[in-house]
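Standup notes
- DV: blocked on the single-chain target, sequence here:
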Amino acid sequence: MKKIQISPSILSADFSQLGKEIKRLEESGADMIHVDVMDGHFVPNLTIGPPVIKALKTTSSIIFDVHLMISPVHKYIEAYSNAGADIITIHPEATDNLQSSISKIKELKKKVGISLNPETKIDVITKYLDQIDLVLIMSVNPGFGGQKFMPEVLIKIKDLKKIQIEKKLNFDIEVDGGINFENSKSAIEAGANILVSGTTIFKSNNGDIKKNIELLKSK
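- DV (later): unblocked, structure below
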């Protein structure tokens, strides 16, 4: 079994102190940083673009796990790659040609992630699973932080894990949305090995980030 990794979402960080917040996460045992990129079109919110990621990357050595919730996504892949994204995760619905977008990310020598919204079936990406590094299962409808975890996605995680074992594939299974100390255990037991969490990491236990990361990792 892969070791459990934590990817804190900076959507819940203090945006006036982002550089310091990332350093704090790094020092507290975060395995990577989850950067939610939203365009106000594919999802109903706006967040950060390549210049901000580039600026943050210059002061940090941690992996940047960049989730592109933008459409059309293909033409922006290179900009986020150049800005410093280490993992680039896209949605199948946001590109006209998923194979072409996967190939583009690989050409740029970045890890490929594909995200599945709660209503998106695994079948959409089954034939690409041998080409990708990560599948991000959304356990809320993307667009805003602080939503409640949707337990019905646990079946999808289990089904994906089963396919992974049967086909002897090696991609990571990441889950994002409403992850807390209670449901994290269910997500891990279902097969997830990377947990994205924002509110729980930054707000629980009086903001003790190190403690919160350790608690999420302990099954």
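- Follow-up: The chain has a mean pLDDT of 94.
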